[in-house]
Design brief:
Structural class: alpha+beta
Strand content: 15-25%
Radius of gyration: 19 Å
Number of helices: 5
Order of helices and strands: HEHHEEEHEEH
Largest sheet: 6 strands, antiparallel
Helix content: 25-40%
Distance between the termini: 28 Å
């Protein structure tokens, strides 16, 4: 953070957390399966962005929002992803370090809310063989403290030289820290 401040810049991120809701399963040798929705059936179809699919878990979702609000989490929106009972929660753009802490708290909170609804929540990269994987996406930008502009875009709206340097840095250094991004075998 200090290096950004020295250059009169502010990093801004917006995380997207993908996760699955699954039936409680205490046997690690048994495959995970989607929980029953409010209609009494497990979800099976691909229903990206489906409001009806998300509504199947409305009591859980309402509690997630309520707990998140009480904890001061910057939760923006929830969408249903492609997998059965797979969701994505988006956070409002903000301070990178603050949001890193919020993501840690969010994951703990979400698992607790799930347990209160007699289900599990998992952020595992690929918890079910027949379902799409989950990820954490991090929207990233750097704001100039001088004029409030995003240094990744030129005044004409094109990619800036700083943007390409930033991408080059990611390509060069991410292989050295990949274990932070993908710490498990199924990552």
């Amino acid at each position: 953070r200090d290096r950004y401040e020295e250059d009169n810049l502010t990093p801004v991120i917006a995380p997207e957390m993908e996760f699955y809701l699954v039936k409680r399963n205490i046997n690690p040798d048994m495959a995970l399966t989607p929980p029953l929705g409010r209609n009494g059936r497990p979800e099976t179809a691909r229903q990206s962005y489906s409001i009806d699919a998300a509504n199947e878990y409305e009591p859980f979702i309402n509690d997630m929002y309520a707990y998140g609000k009480k904890m001061g989490l910057s939760i923006d929106a929830l969408i249903h992803e492609s997998g059965a009972a797979q969701f994505e929660v988006n956070f409002i753009h903000g301070d990178a370090l603050d949001l890193a802490d919020q993501i840690f708290m969010f994951k703990r909170m979400l698992r607790e809310v799930a347990l209160r609804h007699d289900i599990y929540a998992t952020f595992m990269a690929k918890p079910m063989k027949s379902e799409p994987g989950s990820a954490k996406h991090i929207h990233q930008s750097i704001i100039s403290n001088t004029d409030g502009s995003n240094i990744f875009a030129s005044k004409e709206g094109e990619y800036s030289e700083a943007f390409f340097h930033y991408l080059g840095g990611l390509q060069k250094y991410i292989p050295n820290v990949i274990s932070f991004f993908a710490p498990n075998v199924n990552s």
